[in-house]
């Protein structure tokens, strides 16, 4: 029997090879190298399934594969860590990447796009970097692949580089996430300085050391003898900077709506499985560390809850299909952060899973609509597409129901669990309760904008000639939609905690059991352990657990239905009108994203002097030293080269003189002449 | 043979080799004709050969003599290449004066 874990590197390397093949030989391959990417991601997907089976068989894997720098204090390594969390994430990422590759055949190839080898190379590298990030066994390796993911998003968002919009959006995405990553980098250095290791798992891992340090069993370095708890909070918040940037949380979310300039399959990949998911995954990966510091958790929960509501409100007024989806992504990742902050580790991973499927579905569905509409994305030009593209409609509807959190679709189960966790833990923790309130308020808003989008796009009468006669889509679009549509319906079944609690059925909370190492895993990385570390205690309303579950679910479902109903009333008519105008001044604020982009530009101009000073320092002092050294060498070289006359006799004379000098030196030292 | 060798002390051989070497060195330092160069190099190489053979005889070990044979073979090859270079030199510069081609300096 061959060991599945021996193929962990192959999962990462297969898409990387497809990147190399597409880059080097894509021009000469049919479909611009698409089949290489499909084969590679399909291979990775099968290997991931195999690895997940091995984990289900009760095993786990944590190996250092390559040490690229070793010192006295610590070593820097590449390694792979396969536990239930990373095995699950591998399956999600490879499945979504595979479907996105297939979909790209319809979206890119059939539409006659140019530069396809570059596109497929980007997709391959993107997938490979994300997979490398997922299997990373230490924080530094995670950081490196985190950065690679950022680079790939830059390359793919700016794919249509001849138009003015995409390159600027790509730069923005890169710079904004870089701003967060800067804190992350400082955090990585701080982790190394404090613990001397950045490993995620095992006895000597930094979460384990942090736990021991807080218990007083382990001495760690802190700057200036700072209190251990305070310092850990600072480190946690530094790393969180990278998470906020990548997962598009307030205030670094501004890059994500602009990133819609990229090709739609890329948006699906960015939003569902790679890039944005990376931030939340990172928190989940080092949750053993975050669970130790209540302040960090509270900050995470509050940022998450706020972002969930804040982004949802902006989604309400947008006119373009992909813009609505972009804000829904920010909002949904806010929910995941809320769950992580509220101690709902499993809930967050659950929502990450369901969201990956239904958001990929919605983006691919939007891509299908965009093909049909000849790349017009304005929802006011659509309408009535329901009858003309039924496959897209029904799958998109399934995704929308999941996004809105309607029973029994996937999103209902995961969102409900997040809100439940936030509620029961929040009853003893006011800040968390605030996060819960904002999360709950975002529910009807989410349902409203989701169905506003559905009704405007698919229902009513066609409002333009384009919508009346859409371009048909082929199997390569419908296939991925069908797969993801089915998943959006059934994924919730993997973790039906409310059903278990209400009916008293045991063991149908499969995801809980999976993440609790019930089948296999690594000690110290189980949800049970995290719950023990966390600072929260549960409180219940209406006298017990079961009523709390029922009330929580009923409230969130009721609010979602209310939002849906409002959208139904306003927009499910033959020729809907723009009701948002009634919001008056608020509409302008929402439509302009609360003027946050302008604020950031304003801040950038105010801080120009600092940047100028840093530039002067860099050009003058840093570069000055380097240039000084090089000019000394240059001047010295130009003098010394004069001795090279080109006359052989002179060379021979110099050789002889050198020999004599050497002989004299040795002779004097050896005492020959005495 | 051994009696003859024993009768001549090794330092004479070394002095002879040093003399031959110095003649060769003198030729290289003073002449500018490439053919003289070649011959001077041959002289220096044979000085080394004399040393090899002398020490081989002194220690009663044949390795040095074998080395000398190798050096002779190498010297033959070196002469072939050297003459080739001189030929090219002549074709390009119309002269075999080594002080003329100085294009390759800085």
Automatic annotation (TrEMBL), chain B:
It is an enzyme of class 1 (oxidoreductase). It is found in: Membrane. InterPro entries: NADH_UbQ_OxRdtase_chain4L/K, NUOK/Mnh_C1-like. Pfam families: Oxidored_q2. GO terms for molecular function: NADH dehydrogenase (quinone) (non-electrogenic) activity. The chain crosses the membrane at residues 12-29, 36-60, 66-90. PANTHER family: NADH-UBIQUINONE OXIDOREDUCTASE CHAIN 4L, NADH-UBIQUINONE OXIDOREDUCTASE SUBUNIT ND4L. This is NADH-quinone oxidoreductase subunit NuoK. It comes from Halorubrum glutamatedens. The lineage of its organism: Archaea, Methanobacteriati, Methanobacteriota, Stenosarchaea group, Halobacteria. The gene is nuoK.
């Amino acid at each position: 029997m061959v060991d599945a874990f021996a193929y962990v590197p192959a999962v990462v390397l297969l898409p990387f090879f497809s990147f190399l093949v597409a880059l080097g030989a894509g021009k000469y391959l049919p479909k611009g190298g698409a089949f290489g990417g499909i084969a590679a991601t399909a291979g990775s997907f099968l290997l991931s399934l195999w690895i997940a089976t091995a984990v289900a068989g009760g095993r786990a894997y944590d190996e250092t594969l390559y040490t690229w720098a070793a010192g006295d204090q610590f070593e820097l390594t590449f390694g792979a860590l396969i536990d239930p969390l990373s095995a699950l994430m591998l399956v999600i990422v490879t499945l979504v990447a595979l479907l996105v590759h297939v979909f790209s055949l319809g979206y890119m190839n059939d539409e006659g796009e140019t530069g396809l080898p570059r596109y497929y190379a980007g997709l391959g590298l993107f997938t490979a970097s994300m997979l490398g990030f997922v299997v990373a066994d230490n924080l530094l390796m995670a950081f490196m692949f985190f950065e690679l993911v950022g680079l790939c998003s830059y390359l793919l968002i700016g794919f249509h580089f001849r138009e003015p919009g995409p390159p600027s959006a790509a730069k923005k995405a890169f710079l904004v996430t870089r701003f967060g990553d800067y804190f992350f980098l400082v955090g990585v250095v701080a982790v190394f300085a404090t613990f001397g290791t950045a490993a995620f798992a095992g006895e000597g891992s930094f979460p384990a050391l942090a736990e021991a340090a807080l218990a007083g069993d382990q001495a760690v370095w802190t700057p200036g003898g700072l209190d251990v708890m305070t310092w850990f909070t600072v480190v946690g918040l530094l790393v969180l900077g990278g998470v906020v940037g990548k997962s598009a949380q307030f205030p670094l979310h501004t890059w994500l709506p602009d990133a819609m300039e990229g090709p739609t399959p890329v948006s699906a990949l960015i939003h569902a499985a790679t890039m944005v998911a990376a931030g939340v995954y990172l928190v989940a990966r080092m949750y053993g560390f975050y669970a130790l510091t209540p302040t960090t958790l509270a900050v995470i929960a509050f940022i998450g809850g706020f972002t969930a509501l804040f982004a949802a409100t902006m989604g309400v007024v947008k006119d373009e299909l992909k813009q609505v989806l972009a804000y829904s992504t920010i909002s949904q990742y806010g929910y995941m952060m809320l769950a992580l902050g509220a101690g709902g580790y499993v809930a967050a991973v659950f929502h990450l899973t369901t969201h990956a499927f239904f958001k990929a579905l919605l983006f691919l569905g939007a891509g299908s609509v965009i093909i049909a509409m000849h790349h017009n994305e304005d929802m006011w030009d659509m309408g009535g597409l329901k009858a003309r593209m039924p496959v897209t409609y029904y799958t998109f509807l399934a995704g929308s129901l999941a996004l809105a959190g309607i029973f029994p679709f996937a999103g209902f189960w995961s969102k409900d669990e997040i809100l439940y966790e936030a509620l029961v833990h929040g009853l003893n923790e006011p800040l968390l309760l605030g996060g819960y309130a904002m999360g709950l308020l975002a529910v009807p808003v989410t349902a409203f904008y989701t169905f506003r989008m559905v009704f405007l796009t698919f229902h009513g009468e066609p409002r333009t000639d384009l919508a009346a006669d859409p371009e048909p889509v082929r199997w390569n679009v419908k296939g991925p939609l069908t797969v993801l549509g089915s998943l959006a319906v059934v994924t919730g079944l993997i973790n039906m905690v409310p059903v278990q609690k209400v009916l008293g059925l045991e063991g149908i909370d499969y995801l809980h059991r999976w993440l609790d190492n019930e089948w296999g895993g690594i000690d110290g990385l189980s949800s049970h352990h995290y719950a023990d570390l966390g600072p929260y205690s549960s409180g219940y309303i209406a006298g017990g657990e079961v009523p709390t579950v029922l009330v929580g679910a009923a409230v969130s479902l009721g609010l979602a239905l209310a939002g849906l109903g409002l959208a139904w009333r306003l927009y499910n008519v033959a020729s809907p009108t723009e009701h948002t105008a009634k919001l008056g001044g608020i509409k302008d604020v929402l439509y302009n994203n609360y003027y946050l982009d302008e604020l950031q530009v304003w801040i950038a101009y105010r801080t120009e002097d600092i940047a100028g000073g840093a530039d002067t320092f860099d050009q003058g002092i840093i570069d000055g030293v380097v240039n000084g050294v090089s000019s000394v060498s240059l001047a010295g070289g130009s003098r010394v080269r004069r001795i090279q006359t080109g006359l052989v006799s002179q060379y021979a004379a110099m050789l002889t003189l050198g020999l004599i000098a050497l002989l004299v030196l040795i002779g004097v030292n050896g005492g020959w002449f005495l | 043979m051994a009696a003859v060798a024993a009768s001549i002390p090794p330092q004479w051989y070394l002095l002879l080799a040093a003399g031959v070497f110095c003649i060769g060195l003198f030729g290289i330092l003073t002449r500018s004709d490439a053919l003289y160069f070649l011959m001077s190099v041959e002289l220096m190489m044979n000085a080394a050969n004399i040393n090899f053979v002398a020490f081989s005889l002194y220690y009663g070990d044949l390795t040095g003599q074998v080395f000398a044979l190798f050096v002779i073979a190498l010297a033959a090859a070196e002469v072939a290449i050297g003459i080739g270079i001189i030929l090219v030199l002549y074709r390009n510069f119309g002269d075999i004066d080594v002080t003329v081609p100085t294009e390759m300096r800085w």
